[in-house]
Amino acid sequence: MKSATIYKIKGIGYLIHSHSKTSIGLRVASEPFINLPEGVDNDVLADAIKTALCNDDSKRIPHPKDWKQADKEFMAKTGLKSSKSLFSPKAKCLLAEETDEQIIFTPTIPAKKPDSGFLFMGEADKVAVLSKASNQEIFSAFELALSRYE
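Now predict its structure.
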């Protein structure tokens, strides 16, 4: 299944990236990395989401051997100075997955300390839209899923 992560970070904007599977099947962030400012046009945001979902799900990439180096490369590609902004209270995170017929947005919640990152919310919080939907319909589904973020 094609997938991408979408961050909305207050004061920064949107960070969208695709996922690729490593040689052992773990999904990691991959090209394209798209940065958009706050207040971006709805069509531009919907097009960026669709672009991030155009990855080849059958392609495998090498599994990272050095996670610190992989994190440095991720930060360089995102244009962020540190991962703190991704995990701050100002950040919201959604998973987007595309099947043959739908784009499914899954909201997340911040993990509680001592853990870090995001945890997926329940099935009832997911929002689906047809893959062939208009940009406005995709944006509306994205916004609805984002509104379910806690």
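Residues 29 and 57 are 13 Å apart (CA to CA).
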